[in-house]
Amino acid sequence: MGVLTRGGNNRNAAQADTRSLSIPSHSLVAGGLVKVEIVGRARRFFWGAVNRRGELKVADTAVTTNPGGAPVSSGDDPSRRDFINIAAAVAAVGGVAAVAWPFIDQMNPSGDTLALASIEFDLSKVQLGQQVVVKWRGKPVFVRYRTPKEIAEAVADDHADLRDPQTDAERHKPGKAQWLILIGVCTHLGCVPNFGQGEYGGWFCPCHGSVYDTAGRIRKGPAPKNLYLPDYAFLSDTKVKIG
Amino acid sequence: MSGHSTYEPKTAIERWLDTRLPIVRFGVDLMDFPTPKNLNYWWTFGGILAFCLVTQIVTGVILAMHYSPTADGAFNSVEHIMRDVNYGWLIRFIHANGASMFFLAVYVHMFRGIYYGSYKAPREVLWLLGMVIYALMMATAFMGYVLPWGQMSFWGATVITNIIGALPVVGPSITTWLWGGFAVGDPTLNRFFSLHYLLPFMIAGVVVLHIWALHVPGNNNPTGVNVKSKADTVPFHPYYTVKDGFGIAVFVILFAAFVFFNPDGMGHPDNYTPANPLVTPAHIVPEWYFLPFYALLRAVPNKLLGVLAMFGSIGMLFVLPWLDTSKVRSMRYRPMAKIYFAIFVVACLILGICGGHEPDDLWLPSAGGFNLWDSDLFSYTWVARVFGLYYFAYFIVITPLLGLMEQPLPTPESISTPVLSHPATVPAGAAASPEKKG
Description:
The structure holds two protein chains of two kinds.
Chain A: E1 3-4, H1 11-16, E2 21-22, E3 33-38, E4 45-50, E5 55-58, E6 61-64, H2 80-105, H3 111-115, E7 119-122, E8 131-136, E9 139-145, H4 148-156, E10 179-183, E11 194-195, E12 201-204, E13 211-213, E14 218-220, E15 232-234, E16 239-242
Antiparallel strand pairs in A: 1-6, 2-3, 3-4, 4-5, 5-6, 7-16, 8-9, 9-10, 11-12, 12-13, 13-14, 15-16
Chain B: H1 12-18, H2 23-31, E1 34-36, H3 45-64, H4 74-83, H5 88-115, H6 124-146, H7 151-164, H8 171-179, H9 186-215, E2 233-235, H10 236-261, H11 291-299, H12 303-323, H13 335-356, E3 371-372, E4 375-376, H14 380-405, H15 416-420, H16 434-437
Antiparallel strand pairs in B: 1-2, 3-4
Helix pairs in contact in B: 3-5, 3-9, 3-10, 4-5, 5-6, 5-10, 6-7, 6-9, 6-12, 11-12, 11-13, 11-14, 12-14, 13-14
């Protein structure tokens, strides 16, 4: 049961004033909707909302449901309405993310691009001291047949002050020191370094002046890393599979 | 500031429309907008920029009718436009040079905004929207330059997209995502075309917001003093439609001089070589309007820091309204700020020159040979470092400190005061009480 306080010129309030109200006590939770029945008049009722002060709000009329009492439920607690808001927001964000992903992922490499991921190359085409450039995944791959002098220079610098320290042995397959196979893309901003140029006899990048040695290690200039090694394997002494 | 609408519908149909869609009222109010009466020619660049945007969209839509955005067909379709399409050469040269003209105008517009303090309260949002337009312009210009699929297109795209690869951890995956492959290729070209077509319309949208944000506080003016009364303003039309129109006409003369007499002057000959993913041109340079940023990128010997310096230099412009502590808007009344601003403009130009040279080139060929740290003291690398440092210092150190330390000149009481009491035009005796003359 509740006591009605008149808070305006609301018609419902004016009528209800003279009658008893029946309010189910279990519904007196802040934020909840309450069905208020007017006792004695069959099927006459109206809906109200209980606010955080425990008042029943019907338009501009407040019905005090527990006069002088404490708040029905603490304003600090997440109410049922907050829960609905949060749940709706989370569901919406999840839905947007799920829909957005296909629209983002469509820009990643497509199936046919990925299918071109490996090539085979015949090493017998390369002369001693020469470099052949192979196109793999749209990028140049350097296949360099190193001379013993170039290998020796690279090994000699294994413990020099390197920006991206690696020994020469880590740059080629075991027992295949003469074959240096690298991705021919400068690790600075992606230009193709020029073969045999630069003070270390390796490569020189014309774009921003990075210098690589005969093991493809960065020695000077803005590039942060050594030239990357592609995944490759020797199928035979003269055949290599890249990718 | 715009006050009440002065539009009165005169015919029945105008009254009918005005209560349903007051678009005529909108146009009339726009033309009637009270504008400070002392705007100089530096203020015509807003109109010039609107002209540039329309020119680029119109010529661009036409070029798209003849262009083929595939790695195999792009270069040939551009040659087809140049040789076979009726007036294709003209439309393409307008579009290509139009990009340069657009940037020329936007740089003047931005320097004007900095000099006259147009970014200061209450115009911060106006300035920010302008910076958003500038960022969109750079993205659009970059992607547009890729479309002819020449050597510079290809390698420019490679270098710039690799810049994003400098980000730790996520960089390489983002780069692959941008490329749609493992290098710049057909998918990259195709999406750049799609976005190059989209972004100008986004720019147009932000331009609407920019003008909206302009019309809330109204124009700044060369004195930087707020409009005090109706006597300080004139209606936009006919006063500034005429002034802007004259500015646009002069600008078009310069534009036409490039289009007809030196159409490839701002391009690069390497872009008439079809893209070749296996050969990098000897000397990659971006278009002139990106050179200062390119110089900053290369001046820093660390890849990630270089990239941060480049983006940071643009970021400085975004936060400028909150770095400036001076209460005086116009540098006309800031004798010290004027000098530092002049050096700033020179620094930007010199950075541009540095960006156009190889980092190891010497600016004084007879000197040189003196190595400081990693580069020759007389190389462009060091020039770029010195002026790059000034660029950042101008925003981070000079601008905040100057506002606190500088003794500004007295600002006029109103816009009308200096106009009426200008010592060169008014006899000394008459200047005593100019307000009575007005």
